[in-house]
Design brief:
By secondary structure, the protein is mostly helical. It has 10 helices and 4 strands. A two-stranded antiparallel sheet has the order 1-2. The protein is elongated.
Length: 217
């Protein structure tokens, strides 16, 4: 049986578990299902680029706050959603996810995401509701999925830093937000339509021209 779905009992176990316990559960269970890929701590550590003691430390709970980039690499190696190791994933209704060796059919949907540039439009929003565009940034080279999510997470983290401490305590980590947002683009394509960059440029230029002050250099 190369692939299966976690059971409701397993979901409840994971709901009550810490990060390290969840990682160990997935590593053990997925290891049972794979025929050509080992999921010992040594094998996994070699693939994600850390020592096997690092994996063991996370599983034991000795490493309380491992780097989110490392957790992302681990979930990619396990073939599970990044969120499935977080507390937020287990809040609310039961979510039974598939684990194990990808089938030929499922592999079609797990290909690498095409490279893409990261862009950001910066604007100034005044307290009276008026606003103005300042700049349109774009990365100098295209990024893979991991770097895209990491960049988005850093930007989210910067904005989150302006919340008051009580609000911050209730918020998921910026990398969790970034990964969730990225994955939602595939889940809800109508909410994230793709269109030519030239269309946006024309729209932005038309908007600026409509409100630019007349008679000024």
């Amino acid at each position: 049986m190369p692939r299966r779905t976690i059971t409701p009992n397993e979901f409840e176990y994971l709901r009550a578990s810490e990060l390290g316990e969840r990682l160990k559960f997935f590593r053990k269970e997925i290891g049972k299902l794979h025929s050509s890929k080992s999921f010992t701590t040594t094998a996994m550590s070699e693939r994600v680029g850390v020592s096997h003691q690092t994996i063991i430390s996370i599983e034991r709970g000795d490493s309380k706050k491992p780097a989110y980039q490392l957790i992302y690499k681990i979930t990619q190696d396990l073939g599970i959603p990044f969120e499935s190791l977080t507390d937020e994933f287990y809040q609310g209704e039961v979510r039974l996810i598939p684990i194990g060796e990808p089938t030929e059919f499922s592999a079609i949907f797990t290909d690498e995401v095409p490279l893409s540039y990261f862009g950001s439009i910066v604007y100034q929003l005044f307290t009276d509701g008026m606003m103005r565009f300042i700049h349109d940034f774009q990365s100098s080279r295209p990024l893979d999925k991991e770097k895209f999510i990491s960049t988005l997470g850093r930007i989210i983290g910067e904005f989150e830093s302006y919340r008051n401490p009580d609000e911050l305590f209730q918020q998921p980590h910026p990398m969790v937000k970034a990964a969730t947002l990225f994955n939602e683009m595939d889940k809800y394509p109508k909410a994230f339509p793709v269109f030519p960059r030239s269309v946006w440029n024309d729209h932005q230029n038309s908007l600026i021209k409509k409100f630019e002050k007349k008679g000024e250099d």
